[in-house]
Amino acid sequence: MNGKIKKNVFLKELRVEFRRNSFIFSIILCNIVVFICIAYYYNMIFSKASTGYSSDYKLVLGMYNTILLIEYIIILCTIPFTTGSSLAREYETKTLDLLLLSRLTSSDIVAIKIKKTLVVYSVLIVSTLPLLSVVFSVGVVNIVNLLVYAIVVMSSVICYTCIGIYISTKIKKRTLTALV
User: Fold this and answer.
1) What is the largest CA-CA distance in the chain?
2) What's the whole-model pTM score?
3) Distance, first Cα to last Cα, the chain
4) How far is it, in rounded angstroms, from Cα 125 to Cα 131?
5) Cβ atoms of 22 and 82 closer than 8 Å
6) For the segment 49-86, what is each residue's pLDDT rounded down to a tens digit?
7) How many helices (H) and strands (E) does the chain have?
8) Which residues contact 170 (CB under 8 A, 6 or more apart)?
9) Could you tell me which of 9, 11, 83, 156 has the fewest CB atoms within 10 Å of its CB?
10) CB 23 within 8 A of CB 120
11) How many CB atoms lie within 10 A of CB 56?
């Protein structure tokens, strides 16, 4: 019975998060910024190539590193707004009392919040994969590099989510938790 309650609360959290305008805005913003970066680098790469389809591998590797850095910065800048106010939002809407009265422990509630954040940011990473596949066409980067990047981002998401949830438990107001 407890597993069913966890699943229902987790799915409710995901539905609420995916319907937020900030989630849609962050995916669109991240993809637009990555696209602009790719267009800029592709213009640099193929305008310098004097013959045929040759390209400078250092420029392509620089494009890949720049794209991943920009995506990482966007993710790290949006984490405080999504996780910092997660428990404070529950406290303000008086739904935290309902969660605490259920059979869920406080560690279950925190685990659900962390899982929700992991799913949300993995969707953000997957949404930029078609744009990152441009780098694979030149042949500088392989799939292992992309998996290492995903592992680094997800571990950072877990760390910053834990910090955000801790701040959210200490400060009860949603605006203050987003600012801290």
Assistant:
1) 70
2) 0.76
3) 37
4) 11
5) yes
6) 545 555 667 777 888 888 888 888 888 887 877 776 67
7) 9, 0
8) none
9) 11
10) yes
11) 15
